[in-house]
Amino acid sequence: MQLYNHRFKSREDLEQFIDKYIYQAKSVLIQLFCGDLNTQNVQHVLGILKEKLPNAKVIGSSTTGEIIEGHIYEDTISLSFSIFKKTDIRIAYYPRADYETGKNIANNFLVSNTKAIIAFSETLKQDSELFLEGFCSINNIIPIAGGNAGDNYRFKETFVIFEDKISFEGLVVCALDSDVLNVHTNYSLEWNTIGSDMTITKADANTIYEIDYMPVEEVYRYYLGDEITDNFPSSVIEFPLVKVEDGVQVARSVVTKNEKGGYIYAGHFKNGDKVKFAIGNIESILSKSNNLQNNIAKNPTEATFIYSCSVRKMFIGEQLNYEFGLIEQMAPTAGFFTYGEFYHGKTKNQLLNITTTTLSLSESNKVKLKKMLPPKKYNRTMLTVFFDKN
């Protein structure tokens, strides 16, 4: 397979790009990553694709930043063209991202040689974690990659793309069907947990009301200070709660709060879950980027899709170009910053936050050995908060 990327500037540039690299290809998946949230601009690009490549499969998402060839971009319409020789591509749109949709996809959309699913979900009206749970109730083997759509931290309106249509609700999925396709998923969190275990004592899906029998806001005030609720939720998004599930550290960021005082997170909790606060440390995060690179390098890789959390972009910023550059050394890359990433752990698909997740693909069995950059060293923490109240 081959991966080509293009940042839209004009109709003429896009048409020339397609004529040069894509026009004769038969099996093409196009992913649109739209930091430009003007849907008229996006629809214009979709019209060009429909005209020039009527048989290509097109999916996409609004973003909080685009990742192209190891670099971060903002406010662009970035197009990723994947050309396959031995893989069939099927796409579908579902108006709801919920448990029943997950079951439906697992029962009716998969075929015998489906190797992976790429899925993008609208974020603010949907519950993609329920979709993943429904899917895994039927099939816990096929990995799902992708994530929740972003909107440049506005938290007002996200969208997904199916063919030449933009939808402000629902879920778009792509199946990769092949007898030869190698599929490998990886992830990196490297946020440091701090303090003692706390227990969720009152939760409803993605909303926490009490921790250790205290109102959730009191817990945040106690550990982080009264000023932490100023400029909410931006003031607390950097302090996720972390639990361990299926052998994976799962971080959950606050998105907003409801009228009953509950904090709403980008993912679910259950009563009895053990959680800790966590903070980010740039040295730890970026020095361990080589671990992610090494895991990718062990397997055949012709292209890697990166679906990374918008919180990482907010607090690590352009230094993430180092992490993405390491991945780009292995093979061409493309992706976007999400409001939650889909990842297949030991036994199931999960919704993660604050991670960089990767989906590496190859129609070849050859492992390409490349000279890799040495780890960088950093000497400062991103946040200087100490939990000394336990």
Label the overall shape: globular
Number of domains: 2
Largest sheet: 8 strands, antiparallel
- Fraction of residues in H or I helices: 10-25%
Structural class, by secondary structure, is: alpha+beta
Proportion in β-strands: 35-45%
Please give the oligomerization state of what you see.
single chain
Number of helices: 9
Instruction: Report the end-to-end length measured between terminal Cα atoms.
Output: 53 Å
Rounded mean pLDDT is 91
Number of strands: 26
Rounded to an integer in angstroms, the radius of gyration calculated over CA atoms is 20 Å
Spans of at least 5 consecutive residues with low confidence: 377-390
Main traits of this protein?
38% strand; 390 residues; 26 strands; 2 domains; 9 helices
Question: Would you kindly provide a written description of the structure presented here, covering whatever features stand out?
Answer:
- This protein is of the alpha+beta class and 390 residues long.
- It has 9 helices and 26 strands.
- The chain has 2 domains: 2-188 and 284-362, no CATH class; 191-279, no CATH class.
- Helix content is 23%, strand content 38%.
- The N and C termini lie far apart (53 Å).
Give a short synopsis of this structure.
Helices cover 23% and strands 38% of the residues. It has 390 residues and is α+β, with helices and mostly antiparallel strands. The strands form four sheets. Strands 14, 15, 16, 17, 18, 19, 20 and 21 form an eight-stranded antiparallel sheet that branches.
